[in-house]
Amino acid sequence: MAAGKSCKQIARELGIHFQTVMKHRENLYRRLGIKNALSLVLLVSGGHMG
Which residues are within 8 A (CB) of 47 and not within 5 positions of it... i.e. 6 or more apart? Predict the structure, then answer.
C-alpha cells in the first residue's frame, strides 16, 4: 500500500486472493479509525503531503 500498489497487485505478489488483501486493509482502517487511503497517508506522514 505504501508503494501505491492496488489490492490486485499486492495479492498477485503475495499469491493470495485480492479480497483477502481488501479485508486486511478494511481491518487496518478500522483499527486506526480512518476511512480511506488518503487518511492513512496523512496519518503516517504526520499530516504532511509531498
Answer: none
- Spatial separation of the C-alpha atoms in residues 33 and 15, rounded to whole Å: 28
State the distance between the two ends of the chain, measured CA to CA, in whole angstroms.
Answer: 17
C-alpha cell at 43: 496519518
Residue 18 CB contacts under 8 Å (≥ 6 apart), including other chains: 7, 8, 10, 11, 12
pLDDT at 14 over 90: yes
Here the contacts of 31-40 (C-beta below 8 Å, separation 24 or greater) are 37/1, 40/1
* Mean pLDDT, rounded, of the chain: 90
Residue 25's nearest CA partner among 48, 46, 2, 45 is 2
